[in-house]
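Weekly modeling sync, notes
Attendees: AB, CL, MP (scribe)

Item 1: holo prediction request
CL wants a bound-state model with cytidine-5'-monophosphate before deciding which constructs to order. AB pointed out that an apo prediction alone won't tell us much about the pocket. Agreed to run with the ligand included and paste results into these notes for async review.

Input as submitted:
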Amino acid sequence: MKEHAKQRLIFALDVDQFAEAEKWVSRLQENVGLFKIGKQLFTKCGPAVVQMVQERGGQVFLDLKYHDIPNTVAKAAVEACKLGVKMFNVHALGGLDMMRQTVAEVDAYCTAAEIERPTLLAVTILTSSTEETLRGVGIDRPVTEMVTTLARLTKDAGFDGVVASPKEAELIRAACGEDFQIVTPGVRPSFAAMDDQKRVTTPAEAIAAGATALVIGRPISAAADPLAAAGKILAEIETALGN
Ligand code: C5P
């Protein structure tokens, strides 16, 4: 049961040094199944940092949010598959053709290489964007409407799920059905500070709203005992799943 919950806890490796990333993975691997590597750490350390996580028994969520012409994104996605990552993401705003071509090339590569297809996720609208941000780029529609539209598009393209705020999880679950994955940052256990996250929920609330995995950084990294903090979050996930 703990293994099951561990696969739903993703620690955000928001550091810029290889050695520091290594320290966090060694420290947390007992209670954390996946480690999120984003633009900063990947730009600094490259594929070696992905390999480091895997060698220590962790899996990788490669959070590079690809957004480009279909051919470029599809080719980058295949390279992500070659790194053996467990999940990676694109921007749904790249459109249906971009996501469809990505699915096609990833499927072809994974079948030929006889490896399991990674979880393909799309970001709908970044939670840092407001209605005003959207108007500024010429989109005159409410954020929630855009999130639902883009989540449906992601599903239609054959992707596995989206990255979204836990506050949007119910809406997405209703629009995209039971099998769709919803990975949510912006989660704060009751024992942690809010930091700069504003629209937050607890791990249990996020799971109840339909989240399938949680991205958590500072509530773990800033805790006096990070491994114990991850353990408490795991216990909350297990309870929420009814295990
Ligand atoms: O430390 P914290 O738990 O806030 O870290 C959450 C992680 O999820 C960070 O890597 C942050 O960049 C990312 N994220 C987020 N909100 C989003 C999308 C990603 O906090 N909407």
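Recorded for review: The longest helix spans residues 96-113.
Action items: CL to compare against the apo run; MP to circulate these notes.
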